Amino acid sequence: MAGAGSGVTLADLTTLRVGGPVGRLTDAESPAELVAALPEEPMASSGEVVLLGAGSNTVPSDAAVAHVIRPRWSTIDIHPDDAATHLVEVGAGASWDGLAQRAVAEGWSGFEALVGIPGTVGAAPVQNIGAYGHEVSELIEHVTVWDRFAKCTAHLTPPELGFGYRTSRIKNPTRFSGARPRPREQPAPDSAPDPRPRPAPDSAPDPRPRPTPDLAPDPTHLPDPASGQVPTPTAEGQSRWLPRFVVLSVAFRVRLSAWSAPVLYPELAGALDIELGERATLSETAQAVLALRRSKGMVLDDADHNTWSTGSYFSNPILTASQAAALPADAPRFDAGRNPAGELLVKTSAAWLIAHAGVAKGWGLNRRATTSTAHVLALTNRGGATASDIRELGDAIAGKVLDAYGIALTPEPTLLP
Ligand SMILES: Cc1cc2nc3c(=O)[nH]c(=O)nc-3n(C[C@H](O)[C@H](O)[C@H](O)COP(=O)(O)OP(=O)(O)OC[C@H]3O[C@@H](n4cnc5c(N)ncnc54)[C@H](O)[C@@H]3O)c2cc1C
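^ thats the input. predicted complex w/ flavin-adenine dinucleotide below
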C-alpha cells in the first residue's frame, strides 16, 4: 500500500487533468489492501473518499478530497473450458486496453470493437463500456465485488448487474434488478481473486423467493439527509455516496476464434469494406477501430489536447417515441427497446443535438476548456483548465440543447461532488 499525501492532485490522476489536492492516496496492490482502505461507514461521501481507476471517466471538482483509493493489481487467470471458450478472470487494476489488445493477439473474440478505450478492467462494468456496436456486458460471466454494506465479497452475474446503455447497478443503484448478490464463503478477500473454477451452486440461479432485506433499495437510493431529495434515475452516476459495490475482478467468457463478433456499426463496416453483420479478422477489426478512434481524438495521447477529456461527456439521450417525434426529421433515431410502462424508446445522438444547437468543434467559453476539435461530444482541457471550466462548459452546452430541443443531456462520466 502506497501513501502519498502531499503534492498529489486529482489533475495528476485523471485524463481531464483537472481537480483539487488529494490528502491521501492509497494504491492498493491486492483486494485485501483495498478493502482495508475503504471506509467502514456505508454512507461515505464520494466527495471525500474517491474510488478511482485510471481517472478517464471522472470529472473532479477543484475542491480538496481527503482520500483517493485505487485498485492496482492486474492479475490474470485463464481457465480453458473446452476447445471453444475460456474463462478469463482479470484483476480490477489491469488496463482495459492492455486486456483488449492481448485478446486480439491471443485469438479471444469479442474484445476487438472495444480496443483503445482507456481505463481499468474494474471500471469497465461500472458504465458497461461500449463502442462500435458492442458492450463489455456481452463478454462478462460474472463480476466479483466487495459489498461495502454486507461487508463480504459477492459474485454478480449480468442480470444482477442491471446492465444498460452506459450504466449498471454499480453506477446507478436505481437499476435494481430484483436479484440479490450472493455472498461468497469467505468474509473478506485476503489475496488475489480466487482463480479456481466456480462450483455449480455458486453460478446457478437461486430458486428461492427473495423478499429479504437485500431487496430493500440501497441506502444510496434513500433520501439525501441534507436535502431530503431522493436521487433520480436521470442523475445516473452522480450519487453523492461512495458506491456500495467495489469491483475486485471481472470474469470474461471468451470465444476462441480468429474472427470478430458480427460488425454492427455502419462506419466500421464501411472501413472494413464488409456488410453490416459480417465478420472480419480480429486484427483487421481492431486496427480499423483504432484508426477511427484516433481520427476522433478518442485514443489517449499526451501530446493531443483533444484526448485530455473523459471521452463522451454526455450520454446519448433515450427518449419516448413521442419525445422523439418532436425532433427534426433528420435527427438520428435508434431503437432502444421499451420502458417498464411498455412505451417504445428511441435513442438519439447527443453529438447531433449539440452540433445542431450551435456548438461547433473547438467551441468554448474560454480558451482553456473547449469541445474537442475532432468531436463535439468530448469536452477537453486545452491546457490550464480548472474543473470549474470543464463543468461550466458542460452546463453551457446542456443549456443550449435544452433551449433548442427541450432535451436535458445527462453527463456520462462521474461528476465528483
Ligand atoms: C479518450 C477517451 C475515450 C473514451 N472512449 C470511451 C468509449 O469508447 N466507450 C466508453 O464506454 N467509455 C469511453 N471512455 C470513458 C472511460 O474510458 C471508461 O468509462 C472507462 O471504463 C473508465 O475507466 P477508469 O478506470 O478510468 O475509471 P475512473 O474514471 O477511474 O472511474 C469511473 C467510475 O468508476 C468507478 N470505479 C472505478 N473503479 C472501480 C471499481 N474497481 N469498482 C467500482 N467502481 C469503480 C469510479 O468510482 C468512478 O465513479 C473514454 C475516455 C477517454 C478519456
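The first strand starts at residue 2 and ends at 3.
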